[in-house]
Amino acid sequence: MSNQVSVLFVCLGNICRSPTADGIFRYLVEEAGLSDKIRIDSAGTGEWHVGKAPDERMQAAALARGYDLSGLTARQLQPEDLDAFDYVLVMDKQNQADVEDLVSELEQMDKIRLLLSFNPSAITEVPDPYYGGESGFQQVIDLVESACKRLLVQLRKSHDL
Ligand code: 4NP
Questions:
Q1: Which atom, in ligand 1's list, is nearest to the CA of 48?
Q2: pLDDT tens across 4-24, in order?
Q3: How far, in Å, from the CA of 127 to the mean position of ligand 1?
Q4: Distance CA 28, CA 118 (A)
């Protein structure tokens, strides 16, 4: 492990949930003055939206809460990502299964975790907001924001940051 800790957020399209996690966690890490210590990225298991900016509904909901996602661009998860990142944090169990399909070495399995496992709440998955209404985007932010705050506390503890 390099002296930089690296975190990759993964969802299906990389236009709603994982860019939100990327943007929120980036904000929290910058606020903590740890941008040079923690590397952050996001990716999708699917390829349909590669090259696109985050979904406009997701961007608007995030911006209203103070998180600017406009600089992010969707990309597809690659098998090499499982070597390049220390933490691969997925939004739901389907993402988890899809990422696990790319695993080539057993130790890569240990990097893969549901993002919401950092939350004490009973909700274990970030619901896909793509085909739903406005409240789905708010829920993504609520769940992801809470988990990202706890993730940062955990990383600071585990890596002495
Ligand atoms: P995401 O949401 O996985 O949170 O980026 C989705 C975006 C697009 C699609 C599904 C989910 N889609 O089917 O195109």
A1: 14
A2: 999 999 999 999 999 999 999
A3: 10
A4: 15
Domain map of the chain by residue range? 5-155
C-alpha 145/C-alpha 10 separation (Å) is 15
What's CA 13's distance to the chain center, in Å? 12
Tokens of 103: 């695993």
The CATH code of domain 5-155 reads 3.40.50.2300
- pTM for this prediction: 0.98
81 tagged catalytic: no
The pLDDT assigned to 3 comes to: 81
What secondary structure does DSSP assign to 39-108, as a single string? EEEEEESS-TTTTPPPPHHHHHHHHHTT---TT----B--TTHHHH-SEEEESSHHHHHHHHTT--SHHH
Tell me the per-residue pLDDT of 114-159, one tens digit each, with 9 for 90 and over: 999 999 999 999 999 999 999 999 999 999 999 999 999 999 999 9
The C-alpha atoms of residue 130 and residue 56 are separated, in whole angstroms, by: 11
17 is catalytic: yes
Catalytic pick among 55, 81, 86, 128: 128
Scanning 12-70, the segments in alpha helix (DSSP H) are: 17-31, 56-64
Q: Is the CB of 16 within 6 Å of ligand 1?
A: yes
